Structures are given as structure tokens and as C-alpha cells.
Amino acid sequence: MNNSKTFLNLNLLKQKKFNFNKPGKYIVFFHNLSGELIFNINAKGVDLDIYGLYTGKDQDKFIVKTQQRHVAPSARSNLLIKGVFDDTSSFHYEGLIKIEKKAQQSHAYQKNQNIILADGVFIRSEPFLEILANEVFCTHGSTTGKLNEDQIFFLQSRGLKKTDARKILLKGFLDEIYHKLMDEKIQIIKPKYD
Amino acid sequence: MASNVAPVLDFEYKFGFSMPEKNVFKSKKGISEEIVSMISDMKQEPAWMKEFRLKSYRIFREKKMPEWGADLSKIDFENIFYFIRSTETQASSWEDLPSEIKDTYDKIGVPEAEKNFLAGVSAQYESEVVYESVNKELEKQGVIFCDMDTGLREHPEIVKKYFGTLIPPHDNKFAALNSAVWSGGSFVYVPKGVKVTLPLQAYFRINAERFGQFERTLIIAEEGSYVHYIEGCTAPIYTTQSLHSAVVEIFVKKGARVRYTTVQNWSKNIYNLVTKRAKAEEDAVMEWVDCNLGSGVTMKYPSVYLTGRGARGEVLSIAFAGKDQHQDAGAKMLHLAPNTSSRIVSKSISKDGGRTSYRGLIVVHPGAKNSSVYVSCDALILDEKSRSDTYPYMKIKESDTEIQHEATVEKLGEEKLFYLTSRGISKADAEGLLVNGFIEPITKEIPLEYSVELNRLINLEMIGSVG
Questions:
Q1: Chain B interface, Cβ < 8 Å to A
Q2: Alphabetically, which GO biological process terms does the record hold (chain B) (predicted)?
Q3: Does residue A193 belong to any structural domain of this protein?
Q4: pTM value?
């Protein structure tokens, strides 16, 4: 395997379509980005992690489409999009994993997790799979909901105020992506969220 | 048991026989206002129903074909018979049925099913229900179980109150078509507090070439009642395209529970485009068990409108697509009230170039507090020619809710196959075993002990052809 590692911060790159033509490890990150993001996996041995983070408040409106298109066989892609939405923000996510006929031995994953903090929030989550090869393993998952009441209750029982308990849980939820980037020894400027 | 060289999972169609046509009446091909009025006149329907049909016909003409889902471009509405009456009057016992019809049913085993003390068998052969037997027990309880035409004739006040209110003609093009030319189907009314212990069963079958079957089913379960309705379909193979477009409306009142089981095994030239919807009121439970094995193209998304506090909806679905088949099936759950919950479990298998698509919709309206949704879709792709898609749509406008969706697509596990073959089981049998295990969570929900046909269909299609 190729040991090269490439980090792509889409907030800095201003590019939305990517072709991965060489094997190696690729890590993609973006924060509060709208638009259509296309990842074409054209080479064997591509190992791609995609991390998206959304923090919506006021009247923020995000419309995001992602496409993990496996053209070449024996590659891996793994997408994780996490979002926290407050006030009357809205988030429309459409994610597609497409495995073309020749892309046997593909592993493709897609996960979208959203937390709704206020009643005015509107979430649309549409994780699609189109699989044309058979020797593959593909999964997607999507969860949307409020903060876990039991976890808040536990923290309260340890003497924390409810607002602090919520803050800790939100931080833990969002920090997952930073920890994953840190594991890869990648530093980014952490956007503030309160 | 077949030898090891037998093709794996060969879902060959076993009911592809067709009887010579001997119909009393057959309308002209194609659809027009005259045909629609004629159907209504022949059935001597009340004026409001004729009006409803004609209005629906106009809506059908205006509505566009759906631009998503399966390929429907080959449907030619002008090349279909919209009404055939196969016997003049309905037979009340098995012996009274014409011999061809009896023969067809014998082959798929209706009489055996009867022997198993079915609550009632209502079999649709072409347009109208020709054979029907209702258990006396049911009558005593006040349960009405008859074909839709009889329902309209004998219980017009109930039918008028509910008919077309949950799926209005302008819902979609095929609902409009059905509303215009519907014929047959079942009418079920379960009074307050009555629990129907044995499943009600209806058997549908298409026999005339180029004949669209447009059955219409209406089920009303009053407060605290329970009923399980089973519908199974097999049809002979023909070379020209045929259309099946049913509408099923179910009203589940406070605290009632309805289960609707379908085993769909139309032959591959059939377009199966069905609109099924249920409304679940306070603390009601609606369950759809939906097995799609046959047809060339199926588009079917049983839905539950959870309108009452604490209502629960469930869809368990199996789709199998072989050569030249596209199963575009799924489910819809609309959460409109607090404390509502829903669960969708879908299992699909594609093989020999078949395509299965799961298409689902989850809507959580503002105010549906403390609601929860669980969706799980698993797909197996058995060879490289086949395809599987997952298209879930989730729209969430309430913060106090929990939505989970997960899907996996994979092939049969190599390790499991290797393990089974190492124990001396042939590869074909091992694959069959694994596929059966894959769909078992849903097949175990089908009460096979009550229904010989269902048993036969599942076994012939799933096990018999493998072993």
C-alpha cells in the first residue's frame, strides 16, 4: 500500500469536485458548506475519509449533496456528517454512494447524525445507495433527534446544571470529528459553537 | 432434492398456466368516459359512485405519469381491457364455480386452504369476486367481509363515508385510474371491540390477456377491534403487458389493530402499481407485511398516517427481483401526533440482473413530540449483473423525536457458505439456507399455518427451487 496521506480542507480549497486517481490515504474536511460535493474514486487502493461538520443557528440554511462514486475496484470510502441545529436553521442533506459495475471489492460507508435543539429546525436527510456490483460492502446510517434525556439526567445526577450537561454532550457529539482528525495528526481551527 | 448442479435459487414461475377465456362480458379495449359510465351502469351503482368514477376519470386524464421510480414508459392505457365479468352471478359454494376457474384455483391450492378452517376465502378471478365463503362465526360477531361491489350495494352508508377519503383520486395517476374503473376487491368492517381471531383471506388472480385488474379494498376497524387480512396473488404468464393497479384504504380507529399481509407473485409481464394507505388513530396499531416476489415492475409503498396520539405503524417488507424484474418497494410513515412510533424493516434480494429499490418516506410534523422512527433496509446482491438501490427520504420538523435509519448492501457471506459446505451441505443448499435465514425475520410473521397457498408460494419460490 501507498503510505501517502493527503488532507483536503474544502473550506480553503473552494473546489467541489474531486478525482482520486492514485492510491493512498485521503482525508477531506468541511464545515458549514453548501453545494454539491463529488468524490470520484478512480483508482484501486484509494482510502478516503470524508468528514463534514454543520453548526446551524438563526436562519442558517444548508443544502448539501455528496456523492461517493466508486469507479475503480478495491477502494474504500467513509463519510461522516454531523450536525447540530438551533433556532430556525435548516439542513437538507442528500448523500449518494454509487458503486459502478466494475468497482468490485468496494467498501463504502456513509453516516449522517443530526441533533435538533429547537422546534423551528427543519431537517431533510436522504442517504441514497445505488449498487451495481455484488462483491461489495456498503452501509449507511442516519440518525436525527434531540439530545439523549438519559445522558442529561445522568450528568444532572452528578451535580451538573442542565445547561452545562447539554453543553458537554454537544461538545462530545461534535468533537468526534476533531478527534478523528487528530488521530491522523491533522490540526484544524475549531469553529466556535456555544 | 435436486442434484448439486441445479441452478441456485431458480425462482422459476410455477403458476404460468392459463385457462381458455370464457367470459360473460368483456368491455372494449381502452378507456373513455363511455367505458367508465358503462362499468357503473352494469353494476347498477348509486349516482354518487358514478359521479365519483367520472370525476376520477377526468383527473386520470390530467395527471402526469410519475417521473421517478421504475420505468413505466411501456404502459399503453389504450391497449387494456378495463372490465371483464367472468361469471354472471357469484357462486356461493366451490361446486358452483365454472370448471376452468376451479381448475386454476386447484392448482394454487385454494380448497386445501379452506380445509384449514380459514375464516373466509374470497377469490378474485378477473374482475369480480366469484367465490366467497364467510364463516358463520364472523357473521354472528357482526363482521362484514365481502367483495367491494357487494359492500357498496348492501352497506352504502358505510362505504360512502370512507370510500376515497384516505386516497382521493387526485393522489396520483394510478389512484385516479383505479377510482374510475375499479371492480372487485374486498370490503371489511369490524365492529367495536370485535377481535377476528382467524385471518381473512382473499386471493387475486389475473387471467385475461392485456387485462388490467383494478381492485379496491376498504377496511374499517372500529375502536378496540382486531383483524388480519391476507392477500396473495399469482397470475399466469402472458406475452403482452398487463396492468394491476389497486387501491387499499384502511381505517384503524382508537385502540384497534389491523395487520395486512400481501404475497405478491404476479407473472413478469405485470405492472403492479398499487396505492396502499392506512390511517391510525389514537393508540391504534397498523402493520403491513408486504412480500413482493413477482411482477415485472412493482411500485408500492404502503403507508401509515399516524394521526392519533400513541399510534404505531409498522411495515415489514420482502422484495425479490430476478431476471427482467424491478421491485421498487418501500414504505411511508407520517407522524402527525405525539408519542407515535414506527418501524420499517425491509429485506431485498436481487439476482440474474434483477433490480430492487427501497424507497421510503419518513415525515415528522411539528408537534409530533416524543415520536420515534426506526428504519432498517438490508439488501443481498447474488450476482454481478444485479443491482440494488436505497432511497430513503426523511423530513423532520420536530425536535423532540428520535429517527434512526440504517441500510446495508452485501453479498452472501463467504465464511458462512464455506462453513456450511465444509459440513457437507451442497453449495446450492447452503445458499438457499442463507437466503432463507436472511428473510426469516419477515417470513416468520406470515401465519403459514393458516394458509396453504402462502405456504406453497413461499416454499416453492424460496426452498423448493433451491433444494
A1: 366, 379, 381-384, 386-411
A2: iron-sulfur cluster assembly
A3: no
A4: 0.84
